[in-house]
Design goal:
By secondary structure, this protein is of the alpha+beta class. Helix 2 packs across helix 3.
Length: 130
């Protein structure tokens, strides 16, 4: 099993982010983090990160949050359906410890998977196609 996170698994262009923000189909959130998602035809999930200076002050904190987000995405990528996701940091996320952020991200990913399955049912699409 290949657990590498390549460029094809990341949202890189502004148009990719705009597609997710304009076409949000599923979302999961907490006080510190949110994930927005929309369906994709690529056959695998992609991740984009929005970690602003306003919400996570210094570069060390922003990079830590991005690194943890990419790690959870990399490890859970085989569980994820074909969706584009954007991880958004909110105010106060930098005060959380690494284990807390990892646990929160895993809960949000589980919520995204559940909501995607419900979204497929509402569109009458068989769940085994994801």
């Amino acid at each position: 099993m290949n657990l590498r996170l390549t460029k094809s698994h990341r949202l890189l262009k502004p148009g990719d982010f705009k597609h997710v923000f304009d076409g949000v189909e599923i979302k999961a959130g907490s006080r510190h983090l949110s994930i927005l998602g929309c369906s994709s035809d690529l056959g695998h999930a992609r991740l984009g990160l929005v970690i602003s200076k306003k919400n996570a002050g210094i570069a060390v904190q922003r990079n830590r949050i991005k690194r943890l987000g990419r790690e959870v995405f990399r490890l859970r990528n085989s569980d994820l359906p074909s969706i584009d996701m954007v991880l958004i940091a909110k105010h106060g996320v930098s005060s959380l410890s690494n284990p807390d952020i990892l646990a929160l991200l895993n809960r949000l990913v589980d919520t995204m998977i559940d909501q995607y399955k419900k979204h497929l049912v509402s569109r009458d699409i068989p769940a085994n196609t994801c």
